[in-house]
Amino acid sequence: MTPADLLAGALRRGAAAPLVTAYDDATGERVELSGTTLANWVAKTANLLQDEFDVGPGSTVAVALPVHWQTAAVLLGVWSCGAAVLDTAVEDDGGLDAADVVLAAQDRLAALEEQEPPELLGLSLHPLGLGMTGYAGPARDFALEVRAHGDSFTPYVPPDPASPGLLAGGLELTLGGLAEAATALAGRLGVAAGDRVLVDDATAAEAGPVAWLLAPLAAGASIVLCRNADPAALGGRAEAERVTATLGLRIEGVRELGRPA
Question: What CATH superfamily classification does 3-256 receive?
Answer without folding.
Answer: ANL, N-terminal domain (3.40.50.12780)
